[in-house]
Amino acid sequence: MSSTLKSACAAVLALFSLPAATWAAPVTSTIYITVDNGVTNAIRTLNPLTGQFTLTCVFATLRGQVFASLTVGNAGTIYGASTNGNLYTVTTNGTATQLGTVSFASPGYFGLAYTGDGFVADNDASAPFPLYAINSSGTISSTIGQMLPSGYNNSGSLVYGPGNNLYLTASTGPAFPPNLYSVNTSTGAATLIGGLGTNLLVLAYDGSTLFGVDGSVTSNIPVYSINTTTGVATPVSTISGLPAGWEVDSAAAVPEPASLSLLAASGLLLLRRRRPSPN
Questions:
Q1: What is the pLDDT of residues 76-102, one digit of tens each?
Q2: What is the Cα–Cα distance from 247 to 66, expressed in whole angstroms?
Q3: Is the pTM for the entire model greater than 0.85?
């Protein structure tokens, strides 16, 4: 074995001998959450693994309104769907600018997810819950199909997660345990994955893990990681720093450059065998 290959093997063995904590799944995006206390609507960043969140800004407009959902489009643009029934582009300095003319009647939007060339959305104005398609400029909407039968209690969260699948949380009523569903974006039909074992959750996918935040409580708010095969939600942290009386309304993850790309590239370079030098 050449000295170059021996060095490469040693490097790979060293990587695999790192402590387990080193291999914990990294948060590959910045997660933003919107919160409200019945009067003020604010946007904050959340570290889901520790529960720590940081105030970014209070919205100067939309007082008394709630962003029922957030989603992220090209170049990290944040879009919000408000309970006033309108779409907005959202900045982290507290500016919300209405996008297009598509509007849903009260209680407005429940869920919103960016598709790459537009949005899918749902609302609770007319059960059974339909899935809608909206163009990227927010000017045209159409019904894709029915997600769930009448009688379901929909959290409104729609998020693209592992495998680019669309996920939804819902239950058959306040007294029934919530479930995780996958949604067929061609037909709108929601398919049961499994029980969350929690309250209904606000969803966010950071590129590695599907997280859920309990939006039904105003203190000791738990954050969960969700198994997208079984639907089971496992607690990972409790939100800290949010005053009592505030609740989480929506969440979205803004991608960051992959932190492991340089390490991966270095590993590949190590494993490449150099062409032998001429004698």
A1: 899 998 877 889 998 888 788 899 988
A2: 10
A3: no
